[in-house]
Amino acid sequence: MRYKLFGRTGLRVSELALGTMTFGKGADKAASQAIFDAYVAAGGNFIDTASIYTGGTSEKFVGDLVHNDRNRFVVATKYSGSLRHEDPNAGGNHYKSMVHSVEASLQKLNMEYVDLLWVHMWDNGTPVEEVLRGFEHLVQSGKVLYIGVSDWPAWRVAEANTLAHFRGWPSFAGLQIEYSLVQRSPERELLPMAKAYGMTVTPWSPLGGGLLTDRSPSKDDLRKLTERRPEMLFDDPEFLLRIVHEVQAIATETGHTPVQVALNWLRQRDTLPILGASKVEQVQDALGSVGWELSPEQMERLDKVSAIPMGFPHDFLASNQIRNAFYGGDTKEKIDWRAPISF
């Protein structure tokens, strides 16, 4: 496996991360060890967990798995989820939740620090300044080395990184979001924002909730999936089936599996997918995506079959009417554009 710099830092992380949401439920201790060993044997060093995964068991397993060679691994966990639903302060983005969650995570992980702390989800209430001041305290204390953000609106992430820049506080180096061939809505705002700020994007659910695997889903499978994950609902289930069939066709052409095709589409779009597995065979399949690439023609086919409307203002600004009005007809194609300057 090759390694990438994490965001605008010098931290080196493997090109695939190991997600541990199944460790302790779905994958027992022996299965978790086997999955971990296969990942490490391939050169993996980036382990992702969270305070609430499997009721805290995931963090305990991760701590045990890396204990003998702690410094080799980049261990990431998340705060803001609640394990005490009767306590209104047990979850959320606020400072009290952050401090208590990190202390509990360090105890479960049996570590003095975590390499990366993600804020797990936007809570729609805590001021961004409070979150960043809390991160500043934890970084200064040595309990957290780097920070990242998961499942926030793009404008809130931009607000946070801009504020961090002018206050001299740590900024978000990574963005964790759902992103796959069947979930491309982050391309509207989140991915351009991450690129502008130099953030590493780590997609979760890179296989679209299991759609992009060896099996061929039926319409009933799609119905059950969208009942469980209503945000993935499409008016036309045939849209999802067309994506699945194209992935399978390219898998046949390349002699690889649909899992490997789906992961390489993400890797070749400059993201760092998070692998999730409950069996060692699943992670071994996913690791087979390393060391080869889809052709430009195959990438184009996957882009085309999974394309979604970009919505306003993106489609509006790309229209011929607007191009002609603001760029003088075909002059847009004659201008050598450069990326916007950002700090």
Describe the structure.
The chain has 343 residues and is α/β, with parallel strands linked by helices. The protein has a single domain, classed as TIM Barrel, CATH 3.20.20.100. The protein is 41% helix and 13% strand. It has 13 helices and 10 strands. The strands form 2 sheets. An 8-stranded parallel beta sheet has the order 9-8-7-6-5-4-3-10, covered by helices on one side. Strand 6 (114-119), helix 4 and strand 7 form a beta-alpha-beta unit. Helix 5 packs parallel to helix 6 (190-196), helix 8 packs across helix 9 (258-267) and helix 8 packs antiparallel against helix 11. The model has no long low-confidence stretch (mean pLDDT 93).
What can be said about this structure in brief?
The chain is α/β, with parallel strands linked by helices. The protein is built from 13 helices and 10 strands.
Measure the end-to-end span: 30 Å
Count of DSSP strands: 10
Query: What sequence of helices (H) and strands (E) makes up the elements?
Result: EEEHEHEHEHEHEHEHHHEHHHH
The CATH superfamily name is NADP-dependent oxidoreductase domain
Rg for CA atoms? 21 Å
Query: How much helicity do the residues have?
Result: 40-55%
Q: CATH class, anyone?
A: Alpha Beta
Q: How much strand?
A: 5-15%
Question: Which stretches are poorly predicted, pLDDT < 50 over at least 5 residues?
Answer: none
In CATH terms, what is the architecture? Alpha-Beta Barrel
Structural domains: how many = 1
| Strand order in space, largest sheet | 9-8-7-6-5-4-3-10
CATH topology: TIM Barrel
Secondary-structure content class: alpha/beta
Quaternary organization: single chain
- Please tally the helical runs, counting DSSP H or I stretches of 4 or more residues: 13
How many strands, what sense, and barrel or not for the largest sheet? Answer: 8 strands, parallel
Q: Given the C-alpha coordinates, what overall shape results?
A: globular
The average pLDDT score comes to 93
